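Team,

Forwarding the record for the chain on the shared tracking sheet. I've put the sequence and predicted structure together so nobody has to dig through attachments.
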Amino acid sequence: MPTRILNKSWLIKSIFFISAFVILVIGGTTYKKIEDLSQSSALLTKTYKTNVELEKIFSHLKDAETGQQGFIITNDPIYLEPYHTGRENINYSFAELKVLGSDNTTLQNNLKELNILIDKRMEYFEKAFRFSSVGNYEDQNFNENFSNGKKLMDTIRVKIKGMIDSENQLLNKRQQTYDSDLKLTPMFLYMVLLLSLVLMFLTYSKIISDLKKIKSANEQLEIFKESTEQSEIIGKQGNWIWDIEESTFIYSDNLYRLLGEEPQSFKPTLDNFLNFVHPEDLEKFRKDIDRMMTYADLSFIHYRIVQKNGATKHFKACAKLHKNVDGKKQLLGITTDITDEIEHFKTLEERNLELERNNKELSAFNYVASHDLQEPLRKIQTFLSRFEDKEASKLSDSGVLYVDRIKNAATRMRMLIDDLLQFSRTNKADKAFEVADINTLLENAKLDLAESITDENAIIASNHIPSIKVIPFQIQQLFSNLITNSLKYKSNDRTPEIRITYSKVIASEEPRILRPKKPYYHKIKFSDNGIGFDNKYAENIFVLFNRLHNKHEYSGTGIGLSICKKIVENHQGFIFANGKPNIGATFTIYLPFL
């Protein structure tokens, strides 16, 4: 069951789309991880630059303060250069910090406060500078502005330090996030790579497996194709395909051969095929084809074709509608050369006519045998009887012997004619089967032979036999012949005993029944205690006119058991004989359940 599910096309397609979706999800997730890693890296860089710019601002302020102090001490204007460049650099750093902190509200607020402090510090520096430039170092305003500037510088230092500490905390947090992303990303990428390799391996394995199956299927198809082509040649068949939508034909190679042409020697079109159809069948063939194209169906049609060498062939064709994998309708047809069948049928008809003539002759023979032949025989026996009555006293011993021989010969002639008539009637085909009481038929046979049975003091015992569908008069004749046979070949040392038994059997369990036509059979056995026979003659005793004993020892014509065999065969049954010299004989009959 799992193998069947895996071989379903919809499941393979589903697995393919799921795999594609998984790969897309993996790709998107990988891109997101890389993007997060890039953002973490960018945030680290931004935080680091922010700290650097804050350090620069403080450094520029210190440079400005150092330049101020140098000017105050030396009153040399060259010391004012650090002040001016520091101020300008501070502005550059502030501009850079505004860009770096554009998405950081806390940093923006701190920058505003720091800017105010720096502006105020610069204001104190300007005031102190004005007094120092004229040498009023003892002036109270100078001292006050210088002192306030120094205090404010300490405040700025604390403020910057706080901002740097805040940024360092943010830096540490981002560093942890970055480290975490940096650790997880390779692992994730490794897992993605591993999963991709697994998918690739599974896909590769599936492709290799499918390729092997396809290769094996192709080999089988090649073998099947060769087998089909050979079957077409042997069976004298050709295949063709009509594409309904495109109205095109495809002919197999053997269809060309059936037409007497080389394979693919002309374009497979309807018009080209019509060139081979017998002129007398052409109109009917066109109507059949028009009906085929209208209803997309072709039941069995028969027509003739004429090959280029002038040979006429009889064809039979049919077709069935089929949809290919693309959903296009096609008509798959097969054409068979039935020329041999037609010829065989004609031969069979001739033989049937001959057989019918022979049957008529046989009927005439039966009439002659039953009337014309028996009439002279009756006259011979009548005149012979009169001759005995009037002239017997005048005959010599040799004459009496000759008369007895003539009488015996005439009696045997009458028996032979009667048995032949009985055998010929058994061969007739008009057999009426009906359900009959077999026990009654057996009793009727015993009544017919009552005189012989009484004369021999014979004992006939039988168990109950159910009703069977048979030809009643033939079964009665069968029983009569078998009883007669047992009485004829009785032993002189004991009273004749005939035992008749019945049983229902399964054909497959009876080794003597070869190629049974029915699964169940009625088994009827006739066993006697007569002289028996050597079992090597078990088959020969059913042959017409065959006798195991001299005609002077036992009377008979050798036809009785042949009639028995013919009756059983008329019932599609079997009869077997089994004998033991001086012990007895057994005849086993198998009649099928009808």
